[in-house]
Amino acid sequence: MTDITPQVNAVLKSKEVPPITRHRYSIDQLDEFLKEAYRIHTRIADLTSYLKANRAAYLSATPASRTARRNGGPAPNSGAAQRPLTDRERAEIDAHSKTMIRQLNAAINGLADAEKVRQETSTLLASKKRNKAGFGALGRWAAGGAAIEKSPEEQLQESRDKSINAHREGVIFFLQNRLQETGKIQAFMIETRLQREEEKAKSVLYKSRGVGAANDKVDPSLLPQQDRKSKAAADSYQLPEDFDQQLSEEQMQMFAEENQGMLKHLGQQLDQVRAVHKSLEEISQLQTSLMTNLESQNAHIEQLVQDSFFTEENVGRGNKELKKASERPSTARMLYHGTWVFCAFLVTWDLIF
Question: Transmembrane ranges (predicted)?
Fold first, then answer.
């Protein structure tokens, strides 16, 4: 597209109008509310990138190397090479993400509370200014207008305040929505990890029962011929009644150690499932809190937008009412003029006589 800015500037110069200048956007020129909103949004974007960068390694079913399990190195970030993570590193990612989400949620709530205080203060100052101007309601009554009516300037300022309030409420709603999306990413990762940990625990428990116990539930006609022969041989074989007495103490101790090791492994798997389930519950609580804030914020924004739509109509109607009030005779105005005429008559009478 052809740039016609020089031609437009030439026309504006001939009309003695300032030329068009390119607006350079800078965050430093914004107010403190938007600066804080930008900082919160940057932190949310960083957390989202962090989760997405580690999602593949976090959800990988490949066990971590012995060196990684032994060293317990820090969790990889977006710039590190992707590798399978240990359970400790996954727990560190969960803890870091939950801490960041809590901090960001608190920052957004603090921003919303500060904006609420600003709105209340602005409303209070506007009310005090309105009451002080022209002796408040008495001055408005003496001018012939109603005591509760607002001037066009006041209605225009109120319209501006409502527009600013609606914009800032929208910014807070946007930040809460982005944080909720980030929480959904972490919740998905934790849910997937919990599902895989449960499947792993079930697999270990299934293996501990032995292959023979599993084959008892299978129809022999559905098994291959070799497996049917093996199953028949296993069924025909029975352990002697004095099998335990035939084992030596070393063999009994070895079997006991194996059982203890299996129980310990199952206990570790259960602890991991419980830890992941606890993390999922905490994320669910944060998601519920964010959803509640979003619903209330959305209702507030809709109310502000609806009020803004009626502001222009109210300003026009107020101007008409003020015009009618100035045209019709007012008791206060008549009393003022009557008093002024009477005082002038008394002064003149005193000067003459």
Answer: none
